[in-house]
C-alpha cells in the first residue's frame, strides 16, 4: 500500500466524515486497566480528535500484554497498546496476526525502586539484595539482561514475587530492599513513601543501558487489511492526542478522569507526567515521535529473543511493524 | 368354594447380592379369602415384607407364583392399597392433599369426587377438621391414620399393611388397632397385615400365619376363634389371651430351637 | 393425641419457677437481641470502632490498613451513579450465572439420578471441571465468547454449579423408598415421580446448595471481572488496588460483602416464603 494511496483514503474519509455519515467504530484495546499512562486515547475521545476523524472509539481494558495481543489477534478489538517485546515473542512463537503501527515508549519503563539512603544507589548494588516483583510484569523478562549487563547473576539476588499492590508496602516496611516497577508509577510510589516517611528513588534500567522500544500502538491485521483508511485516520488522531497530552497534561488527565472518575485526578496527572518522558526524550528528538528506527528495533528484538531464549533468526523484527500508517501525517 | 383373593403357590425368592446368595422365602403356599384379615407374624428378617412386595407387584418371585383373583401378578394393580411402616407423607402437602395424592400422582389431576371421598375417609379415621393441616403438625398416630386414608382412596379390594403401628407408642398402637377393627367393619377389605406383635395379630385377624426366618417359610397357621364385630372388649377376651400365649410360645420355641 | 398431652405435662412441671426480679431484666435484653441482625450489627459496629481507634492510635499506614473513616470517605467520593453502575454490573453477572447454573445443574442431577451409567461417566468429569482453577481457563473463555457478559456469566456458572449438582443429586436419592414404591404401585410415570416426589423432597438439599452457590456467584462474578471487564465491583477493586487506592478498594470489598449478605438473605427468605416445610424444625 503506497503512501499516496493512504493519504487519499484519509482525505476521502475526512470528507465523508464531514458529510455526516455514521462514524466508523473502532475498539481500542488497553493492555491493562485505565490510568494516567493511557491518557492519549481518552484525550482522543474527550478532546474530539477521534470524532473529528470520523471515529467512534470504544475502550476495552485488558489484563496484561498477552491478553491485549490475543484479543487483537482474535480481532475482538481493532487497535491498542501493548509492549512490543510481547508482540515480538507472540509473533515468533505463535505467528499472531497483529502488527505494530506506531512506537510510543522508546525506552523501557522498567526500573528498580529503592528507599533513598538505603544500601542500593545503582543497579549494580542489587547484588545480594532482596528484590520484590509482581509475577506477570514484562519487566521480569528483562531482569536477567539488566543484571548480566551489570555483571550480576540471577542467583546473586533474592527475588520474591508478590501482588503488585503489595510491592509498595513491602518496600516501605523494609521487607524488600528494592522492588521492580515501571517508571509510570513514580508519583504513586513517591506519595506512598511520603506517607511512610521515606523518600523513594527510581533506578531506570534504560539508564543501565537497556535500550528498547516498549509500549507501542499495535493493530489487528484484519483491521489494517479491511479498513486501512480507518486505521490511518485513527493513527493520525491518536498521534495528535499524544502531542496534546504533552502540551496539556492537566487537560489530558481531566480527560481520563472524566471517563473513569474512580482514578482520581492527582494520581492520573502524576502518572501521565511520569509517562511522558518515556515518549518524549532525546531519542524522540533524534528520530521523531512514533518512529520505529531500524537499529533500535533490531536491538529490541536481540534483547527480547535473548531474554526469552528464542532463536533470533526466527523473526525479522522489520516484519512486525508497518510504518505506513504512522507516516501519513 | 369361591375363588380366593390371593393365592401363593410354592413361592420362593432369592436375592443375588454382592456378598452372595440370600434365600428370603422358600416354598410359601397359602390362600387368602376375599375380605379375610390375615396377619403374618414372625421375627424380623423372615421375609414378611418381601412377601408383601410380591403381592403388590413390586417384586417378581424367583420361583412359584402369586395370584390375585386368579391372575398371576406381573405388575402393580389398581385394586391393591399399601400402608407402610412409616406414614411417609409428603411434608409440603396438607392432610387432604396427602390423601388424594395417589389420584394426582396416577392421573395428574384430582376430581371433586375424589376430594369428597378423601373427606369421608378422613372422617372415618377420625381426622375431620385436620384437612388443611400439614403432616408436621400431627402426631405419629395421626400421621399413620392419614396413611391409611391414603391407601383407601382408590377403594382397593386388597389392603397390604406392613407393620403399620410399629413406630407408635403402646397406647396409641392399641387405640389404632380398635380403630382398624371399626374401619374394616364399615368397609370390608381383604387385608394382609404384617406384624411382630402377637396380641395385635390375635385381636385383629381371622387367621394368623406364623413364619420362621432364613429362609422365610410358613411354620403354621392358626384360626382366631373369636367372632366379629370386635372392639375394646374383645381385647379382654380369654380366647384372645390364650391365642396370644400360644402364638408367643410358637415364636419363642422356634427361636430357642 | 395422648402423647402430646403427656409431653405437655412433663415440660410444664420440669421448668423451674423464676423469681419476678430476675425475669424482667434479661427478658428485655433477650427480646432486643432476638431481633434479626441485632447481634451482628452490634458486633460489626464494635469491630469498626475498634479498627478506627487502632488505626489512629497505632498510626497504621493507609496502604497497610486504611481506617474505616477513610473507607467511608471514598464511598462518597465515587458518587452514587458510579457505584450503582458497578454494583449493577456485578449483580447482573452473578444472577445470570447463578440462574444459568440452576438451569443446568438441576436437570443434570435428575438425568444422573435416572441413569447410573451417565452418573458414573459424568461425576469424574464434574470433579475435574470443579477442580480446574477457573482463572486458568478464563482467558480461553473470554477469547471464545468475546465481549459482553457471556464469558463472565459462564465463569460464574462454572464456579457455582458443582455444589448444586451434587446436592440436588443427593436430595433426589434421599427420597423415602416407601414413596417410590407407592409411585411404582400406582404405575405413575417417571416424570411424575420426579416432579411430584423426588424434586420436592430434594428441596432442602437444593436450598442448602443454593445458599452456598449464591455467595459463590458473587465470587465468580468478581473473578470473571478480574479477568475481563469494563465495570463491576470486582473491576473497581482491581482498578483501585492497581492504583494503590487502598481505602477505595476496601470500600469495594465492603460493598461485595454487603451484596453477598443480601443475596444470601434473599435465598433464605425465598425458602421461608415458598417452602416453609423444608426448613429444619428447631422447636
From the structure above, extract its key features.
heterotrimer, A: 329 residues, alpha/beta, D-Maltodextrin-Binding Protein, domain 2, five-stranded mixed beta sheet, 46% helix, 16% strand, globular, B: 257 residues, Rossmann fold, four-stranded antiparallel beta sheet, 7 helices, 10 strands, 35% helix
Secondary-structure blueprint:
The complex is a heterotrimer of chains A (329), B (257) and C (283).
Chain A: H1 3-18, E1 24-29, H2 39-46, H3 49-52, E2 55-60, H4 65-73, E3 79-83, H5 84-94, E4 98-103, E5 110-115, E6 130-133, H6 139-149, E7 158-161, H7 164-173, E8 178-182, H8 186-195, E9 200-204, E10 215-220, H9 221-226, H10 228-247, H11 249-259, H12 265-279, H13 282-287, H14 294-308
Helix pairs in contact in A: 1-10, 2-10, 2-11, 5-14, 6-14, 10-11, 11-12
Chain B: E1 6-17, E2 20-32, E3 37-41, H1 48-55, E4 63-68, E5 71-72, E6 80-83, H2 95-107, H3 112-124, H4 140-152, E7 158-162, H5 170-186, E8 190-195, H6 198-204, E9 207-212, E10 217-223, H7 238-256
Parallel strand pairs in B: 3-8, 3-9, 6-7, 7-8
Antiparallel strand pairs in B: 1-2, 1-4, 4-5, 9-10
Chain C: H1 2-14, H2 20-34, H3 38-57, H4 68-78, H5 80-114, H6 116-131, H7 134-145, H8 150-173, H9 177-185, H10 190-227, H11 233-242, H12 246-274
Helix pairs in contact in C: 4-12, 5-6, 5-8, 5-10, 5-11, 7-8, 8-10, 10-11, 10-12, 11-12
Report on this model:
The complex is a heterotrimer of chains A (329), B (257) and C (283). Chain A is of the alpha/beta class. Chain A has 2 domains: 3-107 and 213-328, D-Maltodextrin-Binding Protein, domain 2; 110-208, D-Maltodextrin-Binding Protein, domain 2 (3-Layer(aba) Sandwich), CATH 3.40.190. Chain A is built from 14 helices and 10 strands. Chain A has helices at 3-18, 39-46, 49-52, 65-73, 84-94, 139-149, 164-173, 186-195, 221-226, 228-247, 249-259, 265-279, 282-287, 294-308, and strands spanning 24-29, 55-60, 79-83, 98-103, 110-115, 130-133, 158-161, 178-182, 200-204, 215-220. In chain A, the strands form 2 sheets. Chain A has a 5-stranded mixed beta sheet, sandwiched between helices. A 5-stranded mixed beta sheet of chain A has the order 7-6-8-5-9. The two termini of chain A are 15 Å apart. Chain B is of the alpha/beta class and 257 residues long. Chain B has 2 domains: 6-79 and 157-256, Rossmann fold (3-Layer(aba) Sandwich); 89-155, no CATH class. Chain B has helices at 48-55, 95-107, 112-124, 140-152, 170-186, 198-204, 238-256; strands at 6-17, 20-32, 37-41, 63-68, 71-72, 80-83, 158-162, 190-195, 207-212, 217-223. In chain B, helix 2 packs across helix 3 (112-124), helix 3 (112-124) crosses helix 4 and helix 6 (198-204) packs across helix 7. The longest helix of chain B is centred in the last third of the chain and has 19 residues, at 238-256. Chain B is globular. The termini of chain B are far apart. Chain C is mainly alpha-helical and 283 residues long. Chain C folds into 2 domains: 40-78, no CATH class; 86-278, MetI-like fold (Orthogonal Bundle). The radius of gyration of chain C is 25 Å and the shape is flat. Chain C starts with a helix and ends in a 9-residue tail after the last helix. Mean pLDDT of chain C is 86; it is low at 1-22. The A-C interface holds A 27, 32-35, 59-63, 66-67, 70-71, 74, 76, 163-165, 168-169, 172-173, 188, 192, 195-196, 260-264, 267 and C 61-64, 78-79, 82, 139, 142-143, 146-147, 226-230, 235-236, 238-246, 248-249.
Amino acid at each position: 500500500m503506497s503512501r499516496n494511496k493512504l493519504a487519499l483514503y484519509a482525505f476521502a474519509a475526512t470528507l465523508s466524515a464531514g458529510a455526516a455519515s455514521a462514524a466508523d467504530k473502532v475498539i481500542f484495546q488497553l493492555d491493562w486497566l485505565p490510568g494516567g499512562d493511557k491518557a492519549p486515547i481518552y484525550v482522543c475521545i474527550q478532546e474530539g480528535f477521534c470524532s473529528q476523524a470520523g471515529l467512534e472509539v470504544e475502550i476495552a481494558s485488558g489484563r496484561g500484554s498477552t491478553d491485549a495481543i490475543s484479543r487483537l489477534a482474535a480481532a475482538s478489538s481493532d487497535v491498542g497498546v501493548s509492549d512490543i517485546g510481547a508482540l515480538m515473542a507472540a509473533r515468533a512463537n505463535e505467528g499472531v496476526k497483529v502488527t505494530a503501527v506506531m512506537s510510543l515508549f522508546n525506552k523501557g519503563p522498567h526500573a528498580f525502586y529503592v528507599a533513598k539512603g538505603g544500601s542500593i544507589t545503582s543497579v549494580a548494588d542489587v547484588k545480594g539484595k532482596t528484590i520484590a516483583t509482581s509475577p506477570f510484569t514484562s519487566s521480569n523478562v528483562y531482569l536477567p539482561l539488566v543484571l548480566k549487563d551489570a555483571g550480576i547473576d540471577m542467583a546473586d539476588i533474592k527475588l520474591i514475587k508478590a501482588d503488585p499492590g503489595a510491592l509498595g508496602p513491602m518496600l516501605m516496611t523494609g521487607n524488600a530492599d528494592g522492588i521492580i516497577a515501571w517508571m509510570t508509577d513514580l508519583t504513586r510510589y513517591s506519595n506512598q513513601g511520603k506517607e511512610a516517611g521515606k523518600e523513594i528513588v527510581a533506578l531506570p534500567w534504560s539508564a543501565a543501558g537497556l535500550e528498547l522500544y516498549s509500549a507501542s500502538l499495535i493493530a489487528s491485521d484484519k483491521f489494517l487489511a479491511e479498513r486501512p483508511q480507518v486505521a490511518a485516520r485513527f493513527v493520525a488522531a491518536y498521534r495528535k492526542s499524544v502531542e496534546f497530552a504533552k502540551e496539556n497534561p492537566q487537560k489530558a488527565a481531566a480527560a481520563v478522569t472524566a471517563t473513569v472518575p474512580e482514578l482520581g485526578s492527582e494520581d492520573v496527572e502524576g502518572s501521565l507526567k511520569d509517562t511522558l518522558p518515556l515518549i518524549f526524550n532525546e531519542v524522540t528528538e533524534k528520530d521523531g515521535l512514533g518512529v520505529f528506527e531500524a537499529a533500535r528495533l533490531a536491538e529490541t528484538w536481540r534483547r527480547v529473543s535473548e531474554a526469552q531464549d528464542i532463536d533470533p533468526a526466527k523473526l525479522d523484527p522489520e516484519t512486525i511493524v508497518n510504518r505506513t500508517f504512522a507516516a501519513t501525517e | 368354594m369361591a375363588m380366593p383373593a390371593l393365592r401363593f403357590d410354592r413361592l420362593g425368592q432369592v436375592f443375588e447380592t454382592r456378598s452372595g446368595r440370600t434365600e428370603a422365602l422358600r416354598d410359601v403356599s397359602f390362600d387368602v379369602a376375599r375380605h379375610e384379615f390375615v396377619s403374618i407374624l414372625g421375627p424380623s428378617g423372615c421375609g414378611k415384607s418381601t412377601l408383601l412386595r410380591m403381592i403388590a407387584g413390586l417384586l417378581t418371585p424367583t420361583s412359584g407364583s402369586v395370584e390375585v383373583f386368579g391372575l398371576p401378578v406381573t405388575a402393580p394393580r389398581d385394586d391393591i392399597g399399601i400402608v407402610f411402616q412409616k406414614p411417609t407423607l409428603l411434608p409440603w402437602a396438607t392432610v387432604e392433599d396427602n390423601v388424594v395424592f395417589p389420584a394426582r400422582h396416577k392421573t395428574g389431576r384430582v376430581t371433586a369426587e375424589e376430594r369428597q371421598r378423601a373427606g369421608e375417609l378422613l372422617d372415618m379415621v377420625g381426622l375431620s377438621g385436620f384437612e388443611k393441616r400439614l403432616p408436621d403438625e400431627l402426631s405419629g398416630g395421626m400421621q399413620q391414620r392419614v396413611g391409611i386414608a391414603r391407601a383407601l382412596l382408590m377403594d382397593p379390594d386388597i389392603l397390604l399393611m406392613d407393620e403399620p403401628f410399629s413406630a407408635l407408642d403402646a397406647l396409641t398402637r392399641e387405640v389404632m388397632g380398635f380403630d382398624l377393627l371399626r374401619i374394616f367393619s364399615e368397609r370390608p377389605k381383604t387385608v394382609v397385615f404384617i406384624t411382630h406383635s402377637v396380641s395385635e395379630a390375635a385381636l385383629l385377624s381371622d387367621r394368623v400365619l406364623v413364619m420362621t426366618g432364613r429362609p422365610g417359610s410358613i411354620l403354621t397357621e392358626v384360626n382366631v376363634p373369636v367372632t366379629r364385630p370386635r372392639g375394646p372388649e374383645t381385647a379382654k377376651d380369654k380366647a384372645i389371651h390364650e391365642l396370644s400365649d400360644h402364638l408367643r410360645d410358637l415364636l419363642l420355641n422356634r427361636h430357642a430351637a | 393425641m395422648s402423647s402430646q398431652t403427656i409431653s405437655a405435662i412433663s415440660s410444664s412441671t420440669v421448668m423451674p419457677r423464676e423469681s419476678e426480679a430476675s425475669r424482667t431484666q434479661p427478658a428485655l435484653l433477650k427480646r432486643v437481641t432476638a431481633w434479626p441482625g441485632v447481634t451482628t450489627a452490634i458486633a460489626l459496629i464494635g469491630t469498626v470502632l475498634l479498627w478506627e481507634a487502632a488505626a489512629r492510635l497505632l498510626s497504621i499506614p493507609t496502604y497497610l490498613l486504611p481506617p474505616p473513616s477513610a473507607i467511608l470517605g471514598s464511598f462518597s467520593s465515587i458518587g452514587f451513579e458510579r457505584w450503582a453502575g458497578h454494583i449493577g454490573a456485578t449483580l447482573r453477572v452473578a444472577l445470570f450465572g447463578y440462574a444459568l447454573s440452576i438451569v443446568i445443574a438441576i436437570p443434570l442431577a435428575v438425568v444422573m439420578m435416572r441413569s447410573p451409567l451417565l452418573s458414573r461417566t459424568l461425576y469424574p468429569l464434574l470433579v475435574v471441571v470443579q477442580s480446574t482453577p477457573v482463572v486458568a481457563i478464563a482467558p480461553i473463555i473470554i477469547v471464545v465468547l468475546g465481549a459482553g457478559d457471556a464469558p463472565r456469566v459462564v465463569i460464574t456458572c462454572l464456579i457455582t454449579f458443582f455444589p448444586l449438582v451434587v446436592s440436588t443429586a443427593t436430595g433426589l436419592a434421599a427420597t423415602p423408598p416407601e414413596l417410590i414404591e407407592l409411585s411404582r404401585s400406582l404405575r405413575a410415570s417417571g416424570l411424575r415421580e420426579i416432579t411430584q416426589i423426588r424434586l420436592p423432597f430434594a428441596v432442602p438439599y437444593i436450598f442448602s446448595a443454593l445458599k452456598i452457590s449464591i455467595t459463590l456467584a458473587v465470587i465468580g462474578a468478581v473473578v470473571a471481572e478480574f479477568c475481563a471487564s469494563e465495570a463491576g465491583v470486582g473491576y473497581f477493586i482491581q482498578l483501585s488496588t492497581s492504583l494503590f487506592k487502598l481505602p477505595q478498594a476496601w470500600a469495594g470489598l465492603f460493598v461485595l460483602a454487603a451484596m453477598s449478605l443480601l443475596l444470601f438473605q434473599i435465598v433464605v427468605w425465598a425458602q421461608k416464603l415458598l417452602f416453609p416445610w423444608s426448613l429444619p424444625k428447631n422447636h
